Structures are given as structure tokens and as C-alpha cells.
Amino acid sequence: MAAFVSGPRRRTAIAVAATRRARGVRVRVVDRAWTVAQPTGRVTVCRTFDQLLDELTGRGVDRGELRSALLAAAGSVPTTS
Questions:
Q1: Long-range contacts of residues 76-79, Cβ cutoff 8 Å, at least 24 apart
Q2: pTM (2 d.p.)
Q3: Which of 12, 17, 36, 65 has its CA 20 to 30 A from that of 30?
Q4: Using CA of residue 29, residue 35, residue 36, residue 37, what is the dihedral sign?
């Protein structure tokens, strides 16, 4: 799983897709992790893809749908040869 979501461009694509899909949060990339900021000011650091899914599940989107959408976003990033 880590190979599918590793690298700054893939993490950025996941953050953009997550922010669009999950209501009321802003997801950003930090060094080897994501942060999930809520309107209240609470910020959670998610070091793994599963932690990110755990944090975003229940925000108006099904976990399975969210997982598929985020992996599709990561997969859309072109690889360098």
C-alpha cells in the first residue's frame, strides 16, 4: 500500500481529493504525513493512509468510496521514468 501513496506528488493528489470529498475539513501535506484541519481549529496529523481514512470517515462519505477515490487520485499522478 505504501508504494501507491508515497511521494510528495501522490500525497498532494490525495490531499486535494480528500479535501474535495470530505465535508468541513482541509487536508494538507506535511513531511511524510497529512494534516486534517477542522473548522474548530483542531488539526490531526495522519502518518499513514489508514489513519487519514479513519480521520475522514463519517464526513459525508463512505470509507470504501473514499479509499477508492483517494487511491485513484494517487494513481493519476504520472510516474517518472
A1: 76/13, 77/7, 77/9, 77/10, 77/13
A2: 0.88
A3: 65
A4: negative
Grid coordinates in use for 35?
494534516
Distance CA 32, CA 8 (A): 8
* Bigger pLDDT: 1 vs 37: 37
Q: Are 52 and 27 in contact (CB under 8 A)?
A: yes
Helix, strand, coil percentages for the chain (3-state, nearest 5): 50, 15, 35
CA distances from 8 to 17, 42, 62, 63 (A): 14, 24, 25, 23
Neighbours of 56 (CB within 10 A): 25
Q: 51-55 long-range CB contacts below 8 Å, 24 or more apart?
A: 52/14, 52/18, 52/27
Domain ranges of the chain: 2-75
Q: What is the pLDDT of residue 67?
A: 94
